Structure formats: structure tokens, C-alpha cells
Amino acid sequence: MADTPTARAAGRSGPGNSTAPTAAWRNWAGNVRATPARVVTPTSVGELQEAVRRAASDGLRVKAVGTGHSFTSAAATDGVLIRPQALTGIREIDRAAGTVTVAAGTALKDLNLALAREGLSLTNMGDIMEQTVSGATSTGTHGTGRDSASLSAQIRALELVTADGRLLTCSEKENPEIFAAARLGIGALGVLTSLTFAVEPLFFLTAREEPMPFDRVTSEFEQHFAENEHFEFYWFPHTGNCNTKRNNRSQGPAAPPGAVSAWVEDELLSNGIFQAVNSLGRAVPAAIPGIARIASRALSARTYTDIPYKVYTSPRRVRFVEMEYALPRERVVEALRELKAMVDRSGLRISFPVEVRTAPADDITLSTASGRDSAYIAVHMYKGTPYHAYFTAAEQIFTAHGGRPHWGKVHTRDAEYFSRVYPRFGEFTVLRDRLDPERVFANDYLRRVLGD
Length: 452
Prior knowledge:
Layout: H1 5-10, E1 18-20, E2 25-26, E3 33-34, E4 38-41, H2 45-58, E5 62-64, E6 80-82, E7 90-94, E8 99-103, H3 108-117, E9 120-121, H4 133-139, E10 155-161, E11 167-171, H5 176-182, E12 191-198, E13 200-201, E14 204-213, H6 214-219, H7 221-227, E15 230-235, E16 241-250, H8 259-283, H9 288-298, E17 302-306, H10 308-312, E18 320-328, H11 332-345, E19 354-359, E20 374-382, H12 388-400, E21 404-405, H13 415-421, H14 425-435, H15 444-450
Parallel strand pairs: 4-6, 5-6
Antiparallel strand pairs: 1-4, 2-3, 7-8, 8-12, 9-13, 10-11, 10-12, 14-16, 14-17, 15-16, 15-19, 18-20, 18-21, 19-20
């Protein structure tokens, strides 16, 4: 190996600082790969600060990565890859303030379980909980909600290691301009070490899942949105069929699905058989429309009541690639109808359902719901299936409606586009120039979406 700064840096590690041999890293979906010069797993905030300082001294870029559930290369680097798995756990629960402070590498599933044991819960969450809290919030992970917003919008304070190794505490009162942006920072402003979330006493949700025709759910969309705290639906391409889910608070008691029913719906149909039919569809694309018609009728209506994370989240073991755009809520039905018309007249074969969710406006600089009530359309393709034609056609529809792509999901937009659809885009880039003028946290993805 040549004696270059990168080569010398690859072999360095500090006391107590776990540095793994370099190896290729890939994300959950397998569509992004990178080979960092070194991988560091700090066991303390001090070690993380030193890793950032050393990387900057060596002329290496730094990226932190969680569980790799993003479909973009937001965390990819050929420099230093920070793995926060040793920075986990709840630091403090403040019941009077209604907050929990948690280390950045904590998995959402561990946070949800720990909070439930304490009789507490996040107000809203996405539909999976495998991600780390820092990875999920940095890319804008969200669920669906009429009044309650994304995970990032539930943050009340955070700690951030900046490019020069400083540790900043940020909240509405302390470094408020950084707080406004770093709640969803795409890894561009620094490395998160802890997050403080708003929490509330544990509550019950009653979920009502019901098949519904496409024409009915789209014509009644605003009504369903207004009548339910959390409304979402899935449309099955090549059919006129949807499955709806309405989650609303309940007095309880818990009445979860029976063991057999839960296994059939959540494991057999949503994972086991779904995996098999997607594999068949990948091998024989012509079979997909027929499969879709059968699959869209397989899920039956059901109602159940449970604590929040058991209602919001579901196991997702079938791997896929995803694009998701946030649209002004009043434009989502029109855009979805255009998407259906495009699929119907094309030769595309789509085996994954299309997901539609909502979020209220928030005040986070680069949130997909920043300053406007939003609705999301997510399109998916089974892992290993060509997706570019479908995603390109879908993206043309979404951008025509002023869509904002999810920062952690496939898209082709660049800084010029974002400067038009985010009124506060310039505010973020000016802050980035101040916190990271040498672009220690840069990579190809950030150069594209933020400029350089």
C-alpha cells in the first residue's frame, strides 16, 4: 500500500477507541456500498470527538451510520465511518418536563420497549423501528398523523459534535438556529451524540384496518384525514383495490389481535407469502398483475387495540428499494390518480403496494413538511428488480406537484431543485458553511443535494 495520508490513517486508532479493519459497507437494501478508510466505534462522546478531530487532521471525511435503512448514499464515505452502536441507552427521563434523553446509537425498538416499561411513549412514530434514533431523525423518518408530526419534530434538545470536535448542546433556548436545522441535518452539520424527545404517558390506540376501493378512498380522502388522528392507505398497482388503516386513541383495555390472526396477517401474508410472490414476480413479471389482484383481496378487515408502538410499527422482512415524496396535502389525490393512470397505461409491472400518509406542517428547516401540511406517496420495488423506469415516471409526477423527496429514499433531485421547494434552504446552507467550512462531513450525496 502506498504511503498516502489515507493509507497511514487507515491503520491508526486511539486509546479505548475501537477501530475495525476496513471492509465494504452496504445498506439494508443493498443498493448502496462504500469502502471507508477506517471504521470507528466510539465508546464515549469523548472518543467520538477525538475520532472527528483525527479524521480532519488526516484529511479524511467523516460520516456516521446507523442500521443502514436509508436508500440513499447519505452515510456512504471513503473516509472515516462512525458506528454509534456503543453509544446507546436512556440517559435521563424527566417526567416533570415530559422528556427522555437517549444516546444517539439507540435503536428505536429498544427505546420503545424501555419507554413502555416506564409507562411512557412517543406520540407518533414510523412503521418500522429498526433504525437508530439519530439515523431516523437525520433523514426525516415519519409516520402518519393529522396533528402529530415526524420523529424529528418531537425532539426537544440535542447534542452535536461539530467538525472541529466541539460538543454543542442545542434547543429552542440554546443555539436555537442550529437546533432548527440539526433536528433533520442529513449528517451535514455534525455527528449527533444524544437526542431529547418529548414523551407522554403510555396510551392506547385502536386500529381499524379495512379494504376499500381506490375510487372511494381517494374521493373520501379529506374526510378520512379529518376524522382520524392517524390515517394511511395502500394502493395495489394493477388493481382498483386499497387497504386502509385508521388509528385513534382509545381508553383501552388492550385487545391485540389473536396469536393466530396476528401470525397470518403480519407474518404469513405480509412477510412469508409476500416474499414468495415477489420472488415469483421478479422471475415472471407477466404474472404480477394477477398476483396483485389476489394479494389485494387477501387482507381482511380487522380491529384491535394496543399500546402505540405495537400499533404503529410492523415487522418488515421483505427487502425493497423505495422512493417517497412529500406533496402539499391538497395535491396528493390528484398526484396519486396520475400515478395510477401512468401505471395502467405503461408496461410496468409493480408488485409492491403504494403507501400514502400525512403530516402536519412543522418548523424544521429541511423537514419535508417544513411550513406546509403534507401528504406522502411512497413507491417501492422488490430488491433486485429494476426500478429506474418506475421511479423516474413517478418522480416526474411528484415534482410537477412541488414534491419534496424523503432525504433517505431514492431520488434524483439536486441543490438547485431544493432551493426552489424549500423556502429556508439558504438558511441551512449558510449554517453548514459556518459549522463545517472544510466539509469534513461531506460526501457525494451531500454535494448533490446541498451544493458545495
